[in-house]
Amino acid sequence: ANYGPNPICKGCLSCSKDNGCIRCQHKLFFFLRREGMRQYGECLHSCPSGYYGLRTPDMNRCSRCRIENCDSCFSRDFCTKCKTGFYSHRGRCFRGCPAGFAALEELMECVEGCEVGQWSEWGTCSRNNKTCGFKWGLETRTRQIVKKPAKDTIPCPTIAESRRCKMAMRHCPGGKWGRPAKTKDKKKKKKNLMERAQKQHSIFLATDKTSQ
Asked: Hey, what long-range contacts does 177-185 have (CB within 8 A, 24 or more apart)?
């Protein structure tokens, strides 16, 4: 092996002063480093960021990852670690996880999220369990959880929501607060009887004075 006096030749089987390593020792990876207009070979135990180790019978090499925003990869088309700010998902890197997947922040990975069904129709407008007697109420709609998330740490989206609504009937049958019609009729009858009794009493008094 011709290492030469230059430290860049460490791990080389053959090395030149101008181009660095030309061949590497067994198990080391040949990496062609570029600095401006210059390039030279190095022999490394592991490939740098953005490259992966490709083993061949002739010589192991560091090959560039072809995946956008990838920091390290297993192969040319499968990323194992994304750059800062990107989530790893099925060998690719994303700013945000695809639909149906949730972000696992501690690992910066996309995992299967919580799947929910379609929203139901809005329910009846009500307030205090009444559908009348008020001007405004609330109506609610819901949806079901179709598939629970793979990890308990991933929350499901809301499955119920309410909104303000205007009631179709401001006044309840029988009164504003929904009192039975019978109660109102009884009061009306009682009032009529009192008025009739007072009228008859007045007639009796007038007749009595005339007879005297």
From this structure: 177/133, 178/130, 178/132, 178/133
